[in-house]
């Protein structure tokens, strides 16, 4: 049955669309299109093509996006739990494609929860550069952090902050900023009927106020020559072309980069703003024409829901044309990125690691500041009282008092269990260890949900690896690996939290590793989580809160 649209909305759209209105209304009689995006951080498109359990049809504007046939439930497959794909509405894939992210970029996703676009950005970064992903609503950052972890993102920082406070800590730091703005959601009426109900609460006027603030702050976060992509999932011109024109008017060093009218994208409608806002200031009127180069995604013109996208380019540098949907960079931009990458995420050599270990130990001794509010917040370094701990080193040797440097414990585990070049800065928040692509100093005073890739916890002189560490590993990076098949139900049993009997011959060990101990558990070669193998039994380390609950 077709969606019941709010009368005021339908009347407004009739006035705007004129002859096209009938076709627009017909689109509400069709089911919404479902899509998934292959997570190329974990699997290549060719590999996915070989093992895809469903028929997939490409989405024209996203190279890694595919339509999912009606009735197929991609969330009910172990590959979903391995983070091999993200289930995403097809039109929602367009903004990140237009941001033109390249490995090494510094990218900010300002309004990010639950993280669809952040995981798309992360796949484009391929582990290089920085992704800061933020949402102002604390509750929503839980899903954001979980998605960042499930999809194996190593170089992300997750924040729960206001854009203003982020601008204080990261002034002009990012060369790409995504604003997937809170909006009145008119483009989602077909997909989610609750959006119809909540439409009145998210009035256009309220949304405009939020969007104006967020856009203005984004300019303070952007590096010279950088790009902002602004997107909404609404049709209201006040939240789209009018918002962009107002921004251009106040920020003359930005221009709209034209989005090619390919793949069913329709041009922006400055004429609607002129019609609706006859009192538009003269200055705004002169920049309004640029908004023709923004894009509208209409449910009656392409296979997707309603969206709006604008690419705003800061013009202090020579920059590339947004010449294709995927975007290309100028030589200047490339050089800037390479330099930034070296400064931020250069892998540590053995000598560097030793130096860092010494520095961290010193900093721990100096640094005994209390954590600042918020359960996930913390500090770099650890309480001195915890540095001296008791360990029982083997039977018969008794209990001895030894100093165990948590960094050493951590690095020893990494050396014994994985083949990995650690990047960025090792950061301790309480007893939790992270590898951070931005480092702790810059995050001081912010509400940090994840300062980086969560590696594990140092407890009683032992390192307990985290689930996110396993999620982001490739099977060839683990020294001990157990592969389960998706076809015979074994992987689902693991995901349900069951203990499995696994004979020793199935524990794939590298070089000097023995079968006993932490093993990376995979489905058809792709990481699911940890297990602890001993004498033919695989103890399940899959987190209870993540378990497969469907029958
Ligand atoms: C359209 S949703 C984002 C969807 C997300 N980009 C994705 O692809 O999964 C907009 C988000 O903006 C957040 N938000 C609202 N006001 C904000 C603000 N002032 N600063 C940052 N985030 C905000 C909301 O909590 C909401 O999660």
Write a concise synopsis of the structure shown.
GO terms for molecular function: RNA binding; RNA methyltransferase activity. This protein has 551 residues and is an alpha+beta fold.
Q: How are the SSEs placed, and which strands pair?
A:
Layout: H1 7-17, H2 21-26, E1 34-38, H3 45-51, E2 57-59, E3 62-68, H4 78-81, E4 85-87, H5 94-99, E5 106-109, H6 116-125, E6 130-134, H7 138-150, E7 156-159, H8 163-169, E8 174-180, H9 193-198, H10 204-221, E9 222-232, H11 241-250, E10 254-257, E11 266-267, H12 270-276, H13 282-288, E12 295-297, E13 307-314, H14 331-345, H15 350-366, E14 388-392, E15 399-403, H16 406-417, E16 425-429, E17 432-436, E18 448-450, E19 453-459, E20 462-465, H17 467-471, E21 480-484, H18 490-495, E22 500-501, E23 507-509, E24 517-523, E25 526-534, E26 537-540
Parallel strand pairs: 5-6, 5-8, 6-7, 8-9, 21-24
Antiparallel strand pairs: 1-3, 1-4, 2-3, 7-18, 9-13, 10-13, 11-12, 12-13, 14-15, 16-17, 17-19, 19-20, 21-23, 22-26, 24-25, 25-26
The structure holds S-adenosylmethionine.
S-adenosylmethionine (SAM) binds at residues 92, 110-117, 135-137, 140, 163, 180, 182, 210, 214.
Account of the 3D structure:
The structure is a single chain. This protein has 551 residues and is of the alpha+beta class. The protein has three domains: 92-340, Rossmann fold; 350-390 and 403-471, no CATH class; 475-546, Roll (Archaeosine Trna-guanine Transglycosylase, Chain: A, domain 4). It is 30% helix and 24% strand. It has 18 helices and 26 strands. Strands 5, 6, 7, 8, 9, 10, 11, 12, 13 and 18 form a ten-stranded mixed β-sheet that branches. Strands 22-26-25-24-21-23 form a six-stranded mixed β-sheet. Strands 2-3-1-4 form a four-stranded antiparallel β-sheet, covered by helices on one side. α11 (241-250) crosses α13 (282-288). The radius of gyration is 25 Å and the shape is globular. 47% of the residues are buried. Mean pLDDT is 85; it is low at 318-401. Bound molecules: S-adenosylmethionine. S-adenosylmethionine is lined by residues 92, 110-117, 135-137, 140, 163, 180, 182, 210, 214. The site of S-adenosylmethionine has 18 residues, from α6 and α10.
């Amino acid at each position: 049955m077709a969606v019941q649209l709010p009368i005021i909305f339908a009347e407004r759209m009739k006035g705007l669309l004129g002859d096209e209105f009938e076709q627009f209304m017909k689109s509400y009689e069709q089911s919404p299109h479902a899509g998934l995006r292959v997570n190329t951080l974990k699997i290549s498109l060719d590999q996915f093509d070989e093992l895809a359990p469903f028929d997939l049809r490409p989405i024209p504007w996203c190279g890694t996006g595919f339509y999912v046939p009606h009735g197929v439930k991609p969330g009910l497959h172990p590959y979903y739990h391995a983070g091999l794909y993200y289930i995403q509405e097809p039109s929602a894939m367009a903004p990140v494609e237009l941001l033109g992210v390249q490995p090494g970029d510094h990218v900010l996703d300002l309004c990010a929860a639950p993280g669809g676009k952040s995981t798309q950005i992360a796949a484009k970064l391929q582990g290089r550069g920085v992704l800061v992903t933020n949402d102002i609503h604390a509750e929503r950052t839980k899903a954001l952090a979980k998605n960042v972890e499930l999809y194996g993102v190593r170089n992300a920082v997750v924040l729960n902050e206001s854009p203003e406070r982020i601008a204080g800590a990261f002034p002009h730091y990012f060369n790409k900023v995504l604003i997937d703005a809170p909006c009145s959601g008119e483009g989602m009426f077909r997909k989610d009927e609750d959006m119809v109900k909540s439409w009145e609460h998210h009035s256009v006027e309220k949304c405009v106020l939020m969007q104006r603030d967020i856009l203005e702050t984004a300019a303070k976060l952007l590096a010279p020559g950088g790009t902002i992509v602004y997107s909404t999932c609404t049709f209201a011109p006040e939240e789209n072309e009018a918002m962009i024109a107002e921004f251009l008017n106040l920020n003359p060093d930005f221009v709209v980069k034209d989005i090619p009218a390919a793949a069913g994208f329709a041009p922006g409608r400055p004429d609607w703003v002129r019609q609706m806002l006859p009192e538009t200031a003269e200055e705004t009127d002169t920049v309004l024409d640029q908004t023709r180069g923004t894009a509208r995604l209409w449910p009656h013109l392409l296979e997707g829901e309603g969206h709006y996208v604008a690419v705003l380019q800061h013009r202090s540098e020579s920059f590339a044309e947004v010449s294709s949907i995927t975007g290309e960079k100028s030589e200047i931009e490339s050089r800037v990125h390479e330099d930034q990458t070296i400064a931020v995420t250069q892998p540590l050599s053995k000598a560097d690691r030793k130096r860092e270990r010494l520095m961290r130990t010193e900093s721990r001794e100096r640094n005994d500041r209390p954590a600042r509010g918020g359960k996930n917040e913390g500090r770099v370094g650890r309480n001195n009282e915890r540095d001296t701990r008791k360990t029982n080193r083997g039977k018969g040797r008794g209990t001895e008092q030894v100093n165990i440097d948590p960094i050493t414990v951590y690095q020893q585990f990494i050396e014994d269990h994985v083949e990995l070049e650690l990047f960025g800065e090792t950061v301790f928040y309480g007893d939790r260890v992270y590898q951070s692509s931005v480092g702790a100093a810059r995050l001081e005073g912010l509400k940090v949900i994840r300062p980086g890739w969560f590696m594990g916890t140092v407890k009683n002189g032992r390192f307990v690896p985290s689930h996110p560490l396993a999620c982001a590993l490739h099977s060839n990076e683990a020294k001990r690996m157990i592969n389960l098949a998706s076809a015979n139900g074994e992987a689902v049993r693991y995901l349900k939290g069951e203990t499995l009997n696994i004979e020793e011959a199935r524990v794939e060990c590298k070089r000097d590793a023995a079968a006993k101990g932490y093993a990376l558990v995979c489905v058809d070669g792709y990481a699911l989580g940890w297990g602890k193998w001993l004498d033919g039994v695989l103890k399940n380390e899959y987190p209870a809160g993540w378990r497969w609950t469907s029958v």
